[in-house]
Request: fold
Amino acid sequence: MTSNNSPVATKKAKKPAPAQNKPATATLPNVPNVPNAPKAPNTNKAVPFTALNLSEGVQKAITGMGFETPSPIQADAIPALLDGGDVIGQAQTGTGKTAAFAIPVIERVDAANRRIQAIVLCPTRELAIQVTDEFRKLGKFTPGLVSMAVYGGQPITKQIHFLRRQPQIIVGTPGRVLDLIRRGTLKLGHVKMAVLDEADEMLNMGFRPDIETILSHTPAQNRQTILFSATMPRAILELTAKFQRNAKHIKVKQHDQPVAQVDQRYLKVQRRDKSDTLFRLLNEHKFQRSLVFCNTKRQVDYMVTLMRGKGYAVDGLHGGKTQSQRDRIMQGYRRGKTQILIATDVAARGLDVNDIEAVFNYDLPKEA
Ligand code: AMP
Reply:
């Protein structure tokens, strides 16, 4: 028995840590608890959204989205960003980090001005789409506000066409943003807010030169620069030193993080028993929606074929898929047609899908 062969099953809560801090209750029987797994203490700061001085439109959108209390990262970051300061937010997906920057961006953008005033850079197309979606929901009652996603894999001509709608907020992957800048279609001379979302991941993917070039096309003097990152390696600190001024470092405390709401379990099994163990857990619990992480594209494809052969409603997501394939796969998963998504961690990082009941680390993640 070797721990390298252990699939780790985790039960995932769907919302960030804010008001309720409710630990996931369903459990996987006969599975030992992770030693020293963090408990979920109640650290609710209980500042209502109404105390944040938001515009009527944004407040209405927040209420409509069912958000009651700001999550810890929101409670700290929103006032700092509304004040116009630079912020380094150390928070993972699931903490409510998107709204933590999207709310102040919407508040500070002038919807009556048809120039691009905010640019958000994201590592993946999926995340760019998701972030744009959050902007659209939060900006639903802010007349004149237009946000738009630009990313590779979709015809650039289509995006150039949409740019004619004169969005104030652009959310994009660095490669495509740069491409549009070089074509002269994306003009960032009036940007007053720049957000680097999942900055550590963008650096890992080699986007640093692109990010620096993009930022150099925005006015350094008047720019509010916001960086969100789950980790703070040296390269991130260099980036903040170069592009931010007196940035306020806001860190979501360990016990505020969504991991605290996740019931984590592991199983020690022989490599040859891994797939049968996974099938047993899936069959026992009949999860409506689950996610299985594998380390390589090949392993993802292999598992998809194996599981389809056994009748599971399964699909696979990895970097080798085209954009339209990825969109179709994610749509099937969100709508419940696909119950099990097998994915490489890079392809699925930052994906926000509600009601995922279980996440299996079929292969141990390369980065913990
Ligand atoms: P994120 O960490 O930005 O990926 O957010 C994770 C999920 O939490 C998204 O579905 C958000 O819409 C949702 N969310 C964000 N802020 C709140 C809040 N204050 N209360 C409840 N849900 C929230």
Remarks:
- The chain has a mean pLDDT of 85.
